[in-house]
Each structure stands twice: as structure tokens, then as C-alpha cells.
Amino acid sequence: MIGEEKGIERGEGLPVNILYTGGTFGMRKDLRKAEFLPLSHILKRIPEVREFNMPLRVFSWDRPMDSSHMIPEDWIRISRHIRKYYEESRGFLILHGTDSLSYTASMLSHILRPLRKAILLTGAQVPLEASRSDARQNLLSSLEILKEERIRSEVAICFQHLLLRGNRSTKVDTTSYASFQSPRFPPLAHVGVDIEYKSSLFLPPAKDHVPPQTQDACETQVMLIKIFPGMEPRFLIQLLKHTEIKGLLFETLGAGHMLLSKSLNHSLKSVQERGSHIAHVSQATRGKVKNSYAAAQPLSDLGVVGCKDMTTEAALTKMMFLLGNNPNLSAESFSKHMTRPWAGECSKD
Q1: Which of 265, 68, 225, 101 is nearest to 170 (CA)?
Q2: pLDDT (tens digit, 9 = 90+) per residue, 282-341?
Q3: pLDDT in tens, 133-181
Q4: Is the confidence at residue 112, as pLDDT, over 80?
Q5: By residue range, what is the domain housing residue 46?
């Protein structure tokens, strides 16, 4: 359940809609107990939010959670909340745990298309109650960006000194305040003394009065497998033989390489013949999968779709959304959609 709490009514224009889902941001200082502060208590500890002269509507999950416990139903719950209040909000701010933040941002970008209002997500590495918390600055920076309305078409993560396209982001550090990066796409803004926007990177906003599309089903019978040197093909073959999956995503080596055997080839073909779809992304931090190397050609010959420069988070959630809303999707349509950018999650070429 999502309940509304007392917000801030003073100010001009439509309100910013804040949704609190949990995470370190609002935890008590003793992280071992996983106890969450009420959102009303959180806002009282950051009185500067009243200085924006901007109305806020604040909502909270009845049971805030650690983001590692997020499931697709939670992504759908967030997206439906946004749709419900879309026309009566200036923009949206989701307070969220960091562990699965990039997955949530990626899925929201697939579900909520096209956009003409910004959806920002933020969190914290250190709880607000702690003396050296980063929660305060992340929240205030996010609200400043939403107030300025320079960005109106993105699902983005505002964290530390960066504003990142959500479906290009990944968590890279568990101990640093700067825990998110976007290695394959430039930041949308640098947040310092001034906020320096890179407006040429922004997605074009939707036309006035055009709401986001309404499909939001997610296929959960998918699997992510990381390829490594010396991987024993027979284990993968047995796994695929006895598992009913609809989608399989490989994290391949380099530009899209993995060792294939005759028996593994046969197993992958069998999976495809059962109506399942297979794609792959690169394990490398930068660059993309491509077929210019001989080692990558066998995957292409099998019809395994290379997801260009997509992150694992973006490719997996896109696969889940695509298969959830198109259960009888052909191989050709799957390849077309996985390699065509919907919301800037991959390059056009």
C-alpha cells in the first residue's frame, strides 16, 4: 500500500511528488536492525526543503524495504503511482535503496514512455540520522533539478555530484559517496556549486497531453548468466535442459565472446525452438558488443542478439518488459526491439 503524508502546500505551480520506498536513506543509524524512519520525520530533519517555495506531495510505502528485496511487482507499483498523479505533478522523486537503484530506473524508463515530466531517483550511502550522511544533499540537489524543470523527458539518477540517465547507470562502489557511474554515456548534468546541464544529451519530451503508455507486465522467467574462462558447458546445458525460461541474457567476454561447443550450440538452439529468446551484453565497463571479431560470430550465427552498449541492468529489464507484454514475440521482433533505443538505453548505430 502507498499512503499520503503531510507535505508542503506553500509555493507556486504544480507540486513535486515524492515517493519513499525505503533504503539506507531513511534507515536508523544501526543498519543491522533495518528499521526505517517515517517520511514525515525525514523531511523534518531537512528543513531546507521549505526554502524552495515549491509545493510537495509526499507518499510512502506502508512497509519501506531494502532495495535488494525489490521484485517486478514493486517496479509496477511505482510506475502506476506515477501514472496516477502524472497530470497533477511537476515531476517525481523516488527515494530508493542503492543496491537495485539502476534496475528500477531502467525498468521505469521502459515502462513510462514517452515522458514530458522528469522522474528522478536518489538514495544515500549513509542514513540521514548519521552525522556524515549524504542523504541531505542528494535530496536537495534532486529537488533543485525538479524545480528548475530544465529536464523533462528522462528517468534519471541524481547522486552525489552527477545526474545520470537511469538506464545507462550502474552501481560501481559500495563505500564511496560517488557510488554510481554511467561509463558508456556522459552525465546529463554535473552538480556542483552550479548545476551544469548537458541539454544536448536530453531525450526530446513528449508532446503536450500525451501520457506514458500503459503496458507494465514483467516476465520473471528470465535468467542472467556471466560467462567466464573455463566455464564447463555441461553445467549450462543441464541447466537449460531442465529450466523453463522465456529469456536468457549472457554477460559475455570482451566485445561479445564465449566458447561454444557443438553440444552447447544444440542446447541453445533447443531453447530458441521452445520459444525462448537469447541476448548478450559485454562484461566490459565501456564499449559494446560487436561481430567484428571471429570469436563473436558464432553467437550471431545462432541468433543470439547483441545488445550494443546497453548495461546489464537495462538489457535485463528491457527483456523482462518486452517478453512480459509480448508473450508470442517472434525472434525478428525481439532482435529489432532489443537493439533499437526506446529511451536512450543504447546507441542508435
Answers
A1: 101
A2: 999 999 998 766 667 888 889 999 999 999 999 999 999 999 999 999 999 999 999 999
A3: 999 999 999 999 999 999 999 999 999 999 999 999 999 999 999 999 9
A4: yes
A5: 2-201
| Residues 139, 25 share a domain | yes
**What is the rounded distance in angstroms from the CA atom of residue 325 to the CA atom of residue 219?**
8
pLDDT at 38: 80
For residue 16, the domain's CATH number is 3.40.50.1170
24 is catalytic: yes
User: How far is residue 317's CA from residue 58's CA, in Å, rounded to a whole number?
Assistant: 27
Distance CA 59, CA 298 (A): 50
Of 24, 170, 311, 312, catalytic: 24
Q: Is the Cα dihedral 75, 312, 178, 147 positive or negative?
A: negative
Q: Average of pLDDT values for 116-120?
A: 96
Residues 6+ positions from 298 with CB-CB distance below 8 Å = 260, 265
